[in-house]
Structure formats: structure tokens, C-alpha cells
Write a structure and sequence with these properties.
This protein is α+β, with helices and mostly antiparallel strands. It is 42% helix and 25% strand. Strands 6-5-4-3-7 form a five-stranded antiparallel β-sheet. A four-stranded antiparallel β-sheet has the order 9-10-8-11. Strand 4 and strand 5 form a beta hairpin. Helix 1 packs parallel to helix 6, helix 2 crosses helix 3 and helix 5 runs antiparallel to helix 6. The longest helix is centred in the last third of the chain and has 19 residues. The radius of gyration is 27 Å and the shape is elongated.
């Protein structure tokens, strides 16, 4: 894309005192005439570029501009490159890697070997995730409605939405859009989508509120949990709730306190600990858990 090439050329010029048009043409795999047009576009955009013909000449940016208005520091550029690399972890292509090479061209400090931040946004479902992201991005760019089968805790059914934002949060990918059946904005989790496709119907963009992604908004809590865990569970409690979620008792056991969002999810989570966890409160959920365990015992006793 031309904009990618312009960014790459600007990056090279900011990092090198002077570079020739043939060198830029070879680096970006275009003709010298294309490079000349790109340089003209950068000049029209207000970048003070100087060209010097003849032997020893080339293309450069005015010195004062380089000193006083450097676009990115080394740390800032490294963070940008880390972000671009992370997008390739879910895109299923190397398109961001190619852009990254253009941005890092001419600056050895920016190359992959010197990166200290590595981000992987993919998941166990990467094979299904990458095509979904591509379809959603096409829907957002083309202002086309999306259709899909959606599996939610309450029900499953077909949805049609106007998609506006693709979001990565809480270790998962979501799309934020206007649901035509709910007549409101909703957040949909990509891993719960199936049969995703462009509907072919366009839409006029509406005024879109940014999604409220505060933890307390999406996970409102409401269930005060008190439980006791065996010492060997400490690593999981720290990983999932932090160091302040429990108090270590004299016998080494861990007295756990937390707010939980959903009763079914709480029971499922406790069961993953087997006999190494005991729910103390709330009493009504403790009773339900006891009945569930008894029903499971009877099933496996057959």
C-alpha cells in the first residue's frame, strides 16, 4: 500500500543523513519514478525534504527538522514494532511484518533482534480466529452488516450486527456493534461465533458510544465468596485473583475472599480444584454444590 511505503520512506529519511532514490526503489521494490512521486507527496504533506543531484548527492530531510521534530524515539519505535508483530500473531498473514520491516528500515536498533517486548495475541483457536478477524475488519471497512450464529449463556441464535470496533480484552477477542434484533449496542465474543459471513447489506454509520470495558461493568460481581484452599492451590489463586485474595492460615491453608459474577461459573471454577477447595459462603451455593456433588457421586456409582 502507498501509505505504508510513504511511512517507510519517512522512517528511513529520519534515521539516515542521506539516501539515494535507487536505494529506496530497491528497498521498497518499486521503480525510481514511483519513489520520485512519493518524495513529491511527502513534500506536499509538509515534510522539508532536500534533494541533491550528482555524485555524492541524494535525498535527505532538513537537519533542523531531524533534530527538533524527530517523530519517534527508539523506545517508541520498538513499542510500535512490538504491536505490529502482535497483530501478525492473529492475522494469519505476514502483512504487518512487511510493514514492520519498512518502519524499521535503516535503523539497526529497531530490528527484531533488539526487541525486548514480544506479544502474542493468538489463542488455542487461532485457526478459526484469523478468518473471523479478517471478515470483521472487511465488514467495518466496507460498512457491511455481519451475520452469524451466536452461542450465549442464555440462548443461541442468529444475529445480525453493524460492526464498529474489534477489541482484544480479558485474553479474548470481541466485536462491538449495533445488534439489529436487540436494537442496541452489544459486545460479542469471537469464540462464540459460528457461520460468520458478510450479509451483503450495507448500513449508514450511526453515532457510536465507546464500549464501557471496566471490569466492574462487564463483571459486576454481587456474589461474596468465602472458601478455603489447600496450600498447593496458591499459584492458581495468585494468577487468577492476585496476592490479596487470600490469607494464609496457621495450618498453611488459604482463606479466600472475592466477589464473583455468576453462580454457575463459580461452581464450575470450584470443581476444577477437586477436593482441594471448600466453599464456606454463600450458604445457598454451598448447599447447591453439595447436591451437585451427590448427584455426580450417584451417576458414577452406577
Amino acid at each position: 500500500m502507498k501509505i505504508d511505503r510513504l511511512i517507510g520512506i519517512l522512517s528511513v529519511l529520519l534515521q539516515q543523513d542521506m539516501v539515494t532514490a535507487p536505494c529506496l526503489a530497491e528497498r521498497f521494490e518499486v521503480s525510481r519514478r514511483t519513489i520520485n512521486r512519493d518524495i513529491e507527496d511527502l513534500c506536499r504533506a509538509g515534510i522539508p525534504i532536500v534533494t541533491m543531484p550528482g555524485a555524492g548527492g541524494g535525498i535527505s530531510i532538513m537537519e533542523n527538522y531531524k533534530v527538533d521534530r524527530t517523530v519517534f524515539t527508539t523506545r517508541e519505535m520498538q513499542d510500535i514494532l512490538a504491536g505490529l508483530r502482535s497483530l501478525d500473531s492473529v492475522s494469519g498473514t505476514n502483512q504487518y511484518g512487511l510493514l514492520m520491516e519498512k518502519l524499521s528500515a535503516g535503523g539497526s536498533d529497531f530490528m527484531a533482534g533488539n526487541q525486548s517486548v514480544l506479544i502474542d495475541l493468538s489463542s488455542w483457536y487461532k485457526a478459526d480466529l484469523a478468518p473471523k478477524i479478517e471478515i470483521i475488519r472487511a465488514a467495518i471497512d466496507g460498512r457491511q452488516e455481519l451475520e452469524f450464529l451466536y452461542f450465549s449463556p442464555k440462548k443461541e441464535g442468529r444475529r445480525r450486527i453493524e460492526s464498529y470496533y474489534l477489541i482484544f480484552r480479558w485474553s479474548s477477542w470481541y466485536v462491538w456493534g449495533w445488534c439489529t434484533s436487540c436494537r442496541d449496542f452489544r459486545l460479542f465474543k469471537l469464540n462464540r461465533m459460528a457461520e460468520l459471513r458478510l450479509s451483503g447489506a450495507g448500513f449508514e454509520p450511526r453515532k457510536v458510544p465507546l464500549p464501557d470495558l471496566k471490569n466492574e461493568r462487564i463483571f459486576p460481581g454481587g456474589i461474596r465468596v468465602k472458601a478455603v484452599f489447600e496450600p498447593e492451590c496458591k499459584w492458581r489463586l495468585v494468577e487468577e485473583f492476585g496476592l490479596d485474595c487470600f490469607e494464609e492460615q496457621e495450618d498453611g491453608k488459604l482463606l479466600f475472599h472475592a466477589d464473583y459474577t455468576d453462580q454457575d461459573n463459580l461452581i464450575s471454577w470450584l470443581l476444577t480444584f477437586g477436593d482441594r477447595a471448600e466453599l464456606l459462603e454463600p450458604e445457598n451455593i454451598r448447599k447447591e454444590l453439595r447436591e451437585l456433588i451427590e448427584a455426580m457421586r450417584k451417576r458414577y456409582a452406577q
